[in-house]
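Class, study these two lines:
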Amino acid sequence: MAIKVLPDELIDQIAAGEVIERPASVVKELIENSLDAGASRIEIDIERGGIGLVRVRDDGRGIESEELPLALARHATSKISSLDDLEAVTTLGFRGEALPSIGSVSRLRILTRAASADRGAEIAVNGSELAAVKPAAHPTGATVEMRDLFFNVPARRKFLKSEATELGHIARLIERLALSRFDVSFRLRHGMRVLLDVPALDGEGNELGRLAEVLGADFAEGAVAVSHAAGPVMLSGWAGLPTRSRAQPDQQFWFVNGRSVRDRLLMNAVRLAYRDVLYHGRYPAYVLYLTLDPKLVDVNAHPGKLEVRFRDSRQIHEFVFRALERALAGTSPEANAAPAASAPAQLERASSAGAGLWRGTSALPLYSRSRDPWTIAALIADAAPETADGVSVVPTASTAARAPQSLASSLGDEEQPLGTAIAQLHGVYILAQTASGLVLVDMHAAHERVLYEKLKADRASGTVASQLLLEPLTVALKPHELDVILEQREEWSRSGFEIDALSNTHHLEGVADRVLGTLACRSAIHANRRLTLPEMNALLRQMEETERANQCNHGRPTWTRLSLQQLDQLFLRGR
């Protein structure tokens, strides 16, 4: 077959295949144009899941009437004009492909009025058949109306899902866009039913309201604020507490310079940050914004602009991982707050290292820096007598009543977040009394986290206890493998090995942390180990000083609180 130039109509439809996959693709392109035009209010109307109608109306700058035919021409755009502009893109759209692609596979109509124009204008295209521009009544802004998607490409239409499924894709898209721009109002309507209507925020500090509107009150109540900057790069947003993890990754949102992306590098950095505070098979929830110099990121790396390419991907990965790790390090016991609930102050605090930690001294440490960190048997004294139902208590009722007050006095006037131990249940749980209610602590999970963080701190400071093998282990390596080992010799040394290497640093850290986690788990207090009240209080104080103490290193919660109000409700008091 001879080589020939394809007709323009076929070229447009081929290009549309890359840009327009489903109705949600149309909505995305049109709303991004509205945002680039400076819109502060965007209204989206949908019929038949977007297959019958997609209408996007905005109050942006609009389009000059004489430029309307150009707006429907391939690779015609007002957003870039040179290679330098392409290397530092600051707008959501820039290729000039969206409108001509949509017009080639649907019946498209644009009504607009520029801010400087006396009247509006209208243009229509019917499957690449362009009509003449004509006057039309319209306020400043633009309305783009698409009907009958893929009416002229039956093969493409067969691949669309049900109307409910396509509408679901559009709804999730609008949620992402609403989270990307708090200063813009969005309204999504399907037929006569309003699915989402969020007003624009008039200033900072009200973001949690939109988070609750879009993602539900649970997210806003169970997240910590993230704010960390280094040079030209800044990470901000909200990271869900490990105790508010989800069965599916349906509340994970990344924005790079205001653009919604699903980037593997960024998602992997988050996964690493949560790796030892999240229970197996659970997924974190987060809304995170990465802001950096546009020259440091290439947004022209994916047809749908859903993935980006960083100039220094390794540095970005490390920055995100460390920033989130520091934010999650603050998930330790706080006064008047249970780990499954989040006080307003918890949402407002920055992610500086050690945020929200309580500092103090333990009455009886369960680990000692002068001992092997996992040797605790010598520190466990004879326990108090145990009752038939497995509750360890002090011998008499009068002594039990006095013990919490005397112990609290010895620890200082200020109440400790986890209160004062009063009993041990079935050799597994510690009961502690606080001014606001009752605290239950899983002693093994809590002690496991305390030991694990101690071991990690020792490894980071180069004080890991290690013992040389009688005979060195010899491994045959290729030259490039040996180079990697030599480059990472210091890191392996801090982990207790003289020389060894398997992969990159994060892999090494993960292997080392898993070893330390196993040591902590095997060495922590196990069930049926009876503790005295001073030993229970010592564990509570250690928890208050330990980062990530709300979960063990397997991600299980270590403690919870029942408030006086909850206790009253259990017994119907006050009714």
Remarks:
- The two ends are 88 Å apart (CA to CA).
- Residues 443-461 form the longest helix (19 residues).
- Confidence is low (pLDDT under 50) at residues 340-413.
- The longest strand covers residues 223-230.
